[in-house]
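Researcher: Let's do a round of design. I'm pasting the structure tokens now; please hold your answer until I've finished.
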């Protein structure tokens, strides 16, 4: 018999982040779940906005803790 190639599974869609980020998490927890961001904005003292272009996610961090996920 002729060997058949094994089916190739479709990769997960890039819009699905690898982890679930929630308000109150630390920067280390966000990076452990999502990896390094594509871009980090620092619009004000103590405030950072992590942009994950691959997942179309924006994480707002104030004083080291997540305050919003969009």
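Researcher: That's everything. Go ahead.
Model: Designed sequence:
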């Amino acid at each position: 018999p002729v060997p058949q190639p094994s089916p190739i599974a479709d990769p997960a869609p890039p819009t699905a982040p690898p982890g679930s980020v929630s308000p109150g998490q630390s920067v280390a927890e966000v990076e452990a779940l999502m990896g390094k961001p594509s871009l980090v904005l620092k619009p004000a003292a103590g405030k950072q906005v992590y942009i994950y272009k691959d997942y179309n996610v924006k994480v707002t961090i104030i004083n080291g803790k997540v305050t919003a996920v969009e």
